[in-house]
Write a structure and sequence with these properties.
alpha+beta, two-stranded antiparallel sheet, 2 strands
């Protein structure tokens, strides 16, 4: 029987969340996570408040924290 390691839940969340952190909303489904205490980790990252917005003369604008979704989350 294949068993997942507790770290895999964190790894999968990081792999799929951070590349999509520019989205307007997010739905996180942790039903089949790899184990570990992920709820606190998810909530900590998803509840990061908007702090600042950086406007650059050249290049794309950036928000701070850069990996946060400020829209609807569930």
């Amino acid at each position: 029987m294949y068993r997942t390691q507790p770290e895999e839940g964190h790894t999968y969340f990081k792999r799929y969340f951070f590349p999509q952190a520019n989205r307007k909303a997010i739905i996180v489904d942790e039903r089949f996570n790899g184990g570990g205490q992920l709820a606190d980790y998810y909530i900590d990252i998803l509840m990061r408040p908007y702090q600042a917005h950086w406007n650059f003369r050249y290049g794309k604008d950036m928000k701070s924290p850069s990996a946060s979704i400020q829209g609807p989350r569930c």
